[in-house]
Design brief:
eight-stranded mixed sheet
């Protein structure tokens, strides 16, 4: 296993301490600002070295604000800068495919903010291109790199709570104050589906490692400004032992929900305590009998974030994902073992099913265009 041997190599461990990883930042929005701030608390040395945006003026302003050395005239110029080790794409979702493709064609290691693309077909083209170019590529599913999430997955893998029978999760934040020009109402990539549904859709991979998707049932009982606001979905997985596991998810823009995730096994359960997409602790109940259990707690406090203003809650947790990418780049890995390219493709498949079943306007229009192009 190339990934494992690279991780165990004593020489790569030595070089990893010595080498600064230089990042190029594509796009200067709120999420890129939080990402760059989180870089300063990673355990290993890395630098936000260069930036590019749609306008040079906004890139210049961003660079001054964040102490970034180099400002590029265009996205293309940044991608072709030989001094950049890895690119972070923090642009709006409907530009991810085009920008990621540009990076991969230039053989530049790339981390693209989730979602990887707006549909499975484009996600597959990107993954195929990354493999063909033999270059590092990852979707920014940052939740998977939080120590609490890794611990939950390792307990599941150990069989400590038995076979997993159900994963349940909720995630909601109230969109009532989103202005008319907010990305939430963008017909191409707006709605709660493209915003946060993937955080829950990926939980099946935490509970059912190596499983395939059997089927998906999704409904959208509520829309706002034409965009999906509440989604209820059940995803069923064929596990490697041929049994079936389920994922139940509730996503909403109508309310700020508790955001708790529960992984139920035949011998106990794991609760990823709120906020579950950026977790700092989990509790584990080991069954003793019906209604009786022994409880363990695992705490992983986030780094102190009081020194900066953040655009999104708990964004300092980007540091865990940045650390993972730094190690992958230093060790010449092409993907992360904690969120693989196949994980991204499975997630894109689940999201396609949800988007089609709820009738997401942008997704449906895009599907018609793709079908027309295929038959042309």
């Amino acid at each position: 296993n190339k990934m494992e041997s690279a991780r165990r190599s004593p020489t790569s461990a030595v070089t990893s301490m010595a080498r600064d990883v230089r990042w190029g930042i594509l796009s200067c929005g709120k999420i890129s600002a939080d990402f760059v701030k989180a870089m300063s608390v990673t355990e290993s040395v890395c630098t936000a070295y260069a930036v590019a945006a749609r306008s040079k003026a906004s890139a210049q302003k961003f660079a001054e604000l964040h102490g970034i050395e180099k400002v590029h005239e265009s996205y293309e110029a940044l991608v072709n800068d030989p001094d950049i080790d890895v690119v972070y794409i923090g642009s709006v979702a409907d530009t991810h495919y085009k920008l990621a493709k540009m990076c991969l064609e230039a053989k530049k290691p790339t981390l693209v903010e989730k979602p990887l693309a707006l549909n499975y077909d484009e996600a597959k083209l990107l993954v195929d291109l990354a493999r063909e170019q033999d270059v590092f590529f990852m979707e920014g599913m940052w939740s998977r790199f939080f120590p609490a999430m890794k611990k939950a997955r390792s307990i599941v893998d150990s069989g400590g709570i038995g076979d997993i029978v159900c994963v349940q999760g909720d995630f909601g934040w109230n969109t009532k104050d989103c202005k008319p020009d907010d990305r939430m109402w963008n017909p191409l990539s707006g709605g709660m589906s493209y915003d946060i549904a993937m955080y829950l859709a990926m939980l099946g991979q935490v509970g059912y490692r190596g499983a395939t998707v059997k089927n998906v049932h999704a409904v959208c009982p509520n829309k706002r400004n034409g965009m999906d606001q509440t989604i209820l979905a059940n995803v069923f997985f064929n596990k490697p032992d041929d049994s079936v596991g389920s994922l139940q998810m509730f996503v909403t823009g109508q309310a700020n929900t508790e955001e708790r995730t529960m992984i139920q096994g035949t011998k106990g359960r794991i609760t990823i305590t709120p906020p579950a997409h950026t977790p700092s602790n989990i509790s584990v109940n080991y069954d003793i009998g019906r209604g009786e259990s022994r409880q363990d707690f695992h705490d992983y406090p986030l780094p102190d974030d009081s020194w900066a203003q953040w655009n999104y809650p708990r964004s300092i947790g980007f540091a865990y994902q940045i650390q993972e990418v730094n190690e992958c780049i230093r060790n010449d890995l092409k993907e992360s073992e904690h969120f693989t390219l196949d994980d991204s493709l499975q997630l894109a498949f689940i999201m396609d099913e949800i988007l089609e079943q709820i009738g997401h306007e942008g997704w449906m229009e895009d599907k018609e265009k793709r079908n027309a192009a295929k038959s042309a």
